[in-house]
From TrEMBL:
Molecular function per GO: ATP hydrolysis activity; proton-transporting ATPase activity, rotational mechanism
Subunit relationships: V-ATPase is a heteromultimeric enzyme made up of two complexes: the ATP-hydrolytic V1 complex and the proton translocation V0 complex.
Protein name from the UniProt record: V-type proton ATPase subunit G
Gene Ontology CC annotations of this record: vacuolar proton-transporting V-type ATPase, V1 domain
TM segment ranges: none
Coiled coil region boundaries: 42-99
Family affiliation: Belongs to the V-ATPase G subunit family.
Function: Subunit of the V1 complex of vacuolar(H+)-ATPase (V-ATPase), a multisubunit enzyme composed of a peripheral complex (V1) that hydrolyzes ATP and a membrane integral complex (V0) that translocates protons. V-ATPase is responsible for acidifying and maintaining the pH of intracellular compartments and in some cell types, is targeted to the plasma membrane, where it is responsible for acidifying the extracellular environment.
Alphabetized InterPro entries for the sequence: V-ATPase_G (IPR005124)
Statement: the UniProt record of this protein carries the keyword Membrane: no
Length: 123
């Protein structure tokens, strides 16, 4: 039966003939591959998931870059405000230290007096 399928000139090797006709010729043991929709769907779902992951990673990288750019632009203004606030705080600390130095002697005197001089209070 295989011989019925051979071309008339007989020059084609049986090997080549087998590979050419194996997918469509039942006599040579080949049948057309039936479509496999489940495998196709599974493969497509995996491809879609991988594609979505890639898109998400690209979007995340883009947003992080935008955020870093935004942060770099706006942090310069914050740094200036921070330095100004630090200068203001240093001035206030100096004022407090000066006030402490001026009244330090009287505060210590009053504190020692209160501790060492016992004044009984009526209960």
């Amino acid at each position: 039966m295989v011989s019925a399928r051979l071309p008339r000139n007989g020059a084609i090797a049986l090997e080549k003939l087998t590979t050419e006709y194996a997918t469509v010729c039942p006599e040579l043991g080949g049948y057309p591959d039936p479509p496999r929709p489940r495998e196709f769907r599974t493969k497509r779902v995996k491809e879609a998931r991988d594609e979505a992951k890639k898109e998400i990673a690209d979007y995340k990288a883009q947003k992080e870059e935008e955020f870093k750019k935004f942060e770099a632009e706006h942090s310069k203004g914050n740094e200036a405000a921070e330095q100004e606030a630090n200068k203001e705080a240093e001035k206030q600390i100096e004022v407090i230290k000066e006030a402490g130095k001026k009244s330090q002697a009287t505060v210590v005197k009053n504190l020692l007096e209160a501790v060492f001089e016992v004044k009984p209070a009526a209960a």
